Structures are given as structure tokens and as C-alpha cells.
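Repro:
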Amino acid sequence: MIKIIDNAILDGLSQQASQSLRLRKNLNYHTELSDPINRMLNAFEPGTYTAPHCHRSPEKREVFIVLRGKVALFEYSDDGEIVHCHIISPEMGVYAGEVPPGVFHNVVSLQTGTVVYEIKDGPYVPETDKQFALWAPNEGDEKSIEYLQKLINYINELQ
């Protein structure tokens, strides 16, 4: 069966994200965790924190296609220095970013109602899927709010 992504799906997912404690919500399009290609919608609201991570073992690439809204896709060196901050927004004519295997990265939502179509090599195995950066706080850590603000300040300096 062909799966269609329309405004109703994006609106519903964004609403769920805005009401979630994490300020994000995903909807999987792969039916099995063992699928060789994981595909999902991910609604990100401003204020959500995704901890910097990479996909090294096993190596996996990750693609973020912004369907609506605006995100900053951060790329880091292995020791935590920001290598680049890519602003991705269809309104700006920038639609997607592909992260190669082993590159530390995270996404920061810059606009209410942001929804990303995410594609990542599978299979999904929670224990090995992500290697979180030791130099950044984990999600839920009280220092994550301060770290997120540092990233937002970095973005504001770019503009």
C-alpha cells in the first residue's frame, strides 16, 4: 500500500509533539525494526533537545528532509567543537541534510510545527543505534537546557 504524507498527518503529529514532555513525536513508516531502511516522520518543537550523537558501530548514514518548518543541523568534531551549523528550511530553498556514518550531529528546531522526514540505515537496535557524545549532556540531564541555549545563541550569532 502506498503511504501518503499530507497536511493532516503533519498537523496531527505537530500537535502531539507540542503536547509531549519531550516536545517531539515520531511516526514510523518502517513496519519492522529489522527493516534495512528506517523511515519516519519526526515533529520537533522549539525547546526539544536531541543529544549530539553519531552512528559508528554499526556505521549508518542519516538523512533529514524538512517537510515544513526550520531546523539547525549541527556537525561536530569528535571532541565537541562545532564544525558547521546548517540551517535547513524549505522556505529558504534548503530542503535536506545527509549525515555520513560516524559524524557527531544533532538537530535543533527553530520553528513551531517543524516536521522532518528522517531516513536512516537499519536495522534499528536500541543498544547500538547511537553513540552519544561524552562532551554533551544526555537528554533529560539538567544541563541539557543550558547546552541547548548555547546552540541557540550560536545560531543567533550566525544570523
